[in-house]
Design goal:
Oligomer: homodimer
Structural class of chain A: alpha/beta
Order of helices and strands of chain A: EEEHEEEEHEHEEEHHHHHEHEH
CATH superfamily of the largest domain in chain A: ATPase, nucleotide binding domain
Distance between the termini of chain A: 11 Å
Low-confidence stretches of chain A: none
CATH architecture of the largest domain in chain A: 2-Layer Sandwich
Number of helices of chain A: 10
Number of strands of chain A: 13
Mean pLDDT of chain A: 96
Shape of chain A: globular
């Protein structure tokens, strides 16, 4: 079985045919034109998809088109209600795609698409309950129960990054304070790294990033791996807050596995060993409560496309 | 259709026949004998149930026996792994019941049973996604998705009270710090009430509870309803922390409704009006995110029995 999986992002819209083994065909890409109306962008996308299907001779093989989009969606009607990153409001994606293409269209939140991809074909393969967090500029969440995305009422749930772990804590983009996102996003790690660097002019981190605006999420990890005490404290603190958030999801869902993606997940064993130790040390107290492993995502940038296509592989 | 629903508690074991309309027959009750082995307690329970079924002439009408128990359960095998309140460890409930009775036996966590009862026949009736919290000595949680209990891996999820809302906050019975339970249980409210009373000897609360050990969860509510500023501050603070916890569940599940039970839920509109306002004020920022109502439970002490029986009414 083959479906098209599409991933709409703030810089480009990418897609590919994906088969029900999770194999990804040649990827197509079109720029996301800032300022263009959502309607026009989707019309162009429909043309690109049509040409792609013709080129690969897939016309009679495609069972549907899955589209992952950021923002708040009406998945029943195939509408992007509101996507701040794209500056889209009430874009009738499914209807517009249907002007050009007759395949069934399914819309899915981009974080959910990535989670579904990883749960079915990546790091969460073979597991029933999978939680995925994308640690990027923000923190996206996906909840996979019995192989299906759990979306909540009107598909507005799954906002795992917007769970407060520190009442009255750091301000969050959502308007509340103390959300997990405000402590475990790359943005938050960079904020804390800069704070520590400003207070410790001798930190190794100044060698890695001689100017403060060069700091990204890899800087504290690189320095910590080289035993810089300031960086180690930044990382320990980061792991503590992220660990507390993950333990919350363990107690709520008791998932089989938690998958982390995003730039920070590239820190490798140095991060995952510490994070798994934290989760083990504070695992819920009842005897025989199964421990939850945290692992890096495996599908990279393809997870969203694969997950969007996988909406048709139930 | 009729099933037996049983609720095992630390002072008594109660049960009743329940029909698939949620109607509860005459309730039977036996004392929970502290110090007696779990095996003996269950053997006695089986005898009580057998006599009850004979007395009510239900022998050929019962489709199964649902048993709600506190603690950590193996719901597949019908074993109470560990229940601190009961001092039970590895009690093979289903096997022992089957020595006397041939009906199918299903075991369910007591908080989940109450949630299922409320979701199917009480305050959550007609709704798809229902979250229930029981605000008592601790905070029990239940997650109902599509009319079914979500239990997580090995039925060890759903511990909504053990989600940290203040990293490094108040110590919790589970070993972590800052759990929702440590801020929104009756125990927590009483702790904060006593603290406020000790610091404010003129508070009206001293009239209601002339000795500090008379303080229960109703004291600050009663005083606050009479405009005692100290009590109002205690209640505002209580609502803030509980509200933050509930907002977390809104963002994770975006449920249709949240149901609260336990002694504190008896505080009535005074509590629920303020709580609903808090949830409305901090509702997740995307446009058109549906608001979540918080309502009191409707079934009282019967919710557990009804929910346990309802395991057979799918």
């Amino acid at each position: 079985m083959i479906a098209i999986g599409i991933d709409i992002g703030g810089t480009s819209i990418k897609g590919a045919a994906v088969d029900s083994n999770g194999s990804v065909y040649e990827v197509f890409s079109m720029p996301f034109v800032k300022g263009e109306s959502g309607e026009n962008s989707i019309r162009k996308l429909a043309d690109v998809v049509k040409k792609y299907i013709d080129k690969h001779n897939l016309k009679d093989k495609i069972v549907g088109i899955g589209i992952g989009s950021p923002g708040s969606l009406d998945t029943d009607l195939g509408i992007v209600n509101y996507a701040n990153n794209l500056k889209w409001e009430n874009v009738r994606v499914a209807d517009i795609m249907h002007e050009t293409l007759t395949y069934p269209i399914k819309l899915i939140n981009d974080a959910n698409a990535a989670a579904l991809g990883e749960a079915k074909y990546g790091a969460g393969k073979h597991y029933q309950t999978v939680i995925m967090l994308t640690l990027g500029t923000g923190v996206g969440g996906g909840i996979i129960l019995d192989g299906k995305v759990f979306e909540g009422n009107e598909a507005k749930g799954g906002e795992l990054g917007h769970t407060v772990i520190v009442v009255d804590g750091e301000p969050c983009s959502c308007g509340r304070r103390g959300c997990l996102e405000a402590y475990s996003s790359a943005t938050a790690l960079i904020r804390e790294t800069k704070k520590a660097m400003r207070a410790n002019k001798n930190s190794l981190m100044w060698k890695i990033a001689p100017k403060i605006n060069l700091v990204d999420g890899s800087v504290p990890f690189e320095a910590a791996k080289n035993n810089d005490p300031v960086a180690l404290e930044v990382i320990d603190n980061y792991i503590k807050y992220l660990g507390e958030g993950l333990l919350n999801f363990c107690n709520i869902f008791r998932p089989n596995i938690i998958v982390l993606s995003g730039g920070i997940a590239n820190a490798g064993d140095f991060l995952f060993d510490r994070l798994n130790k934290y989760l083990k040390d504070y695992n819920y107290g009842y005897k025989r409560t199964p421990e939850v492993k945290v692992v890096p995502a495996e599908l990279g940038y393809d997870s969203g496309k694969i997950g969007a296509a996988a909406l048709f592989f139930n």
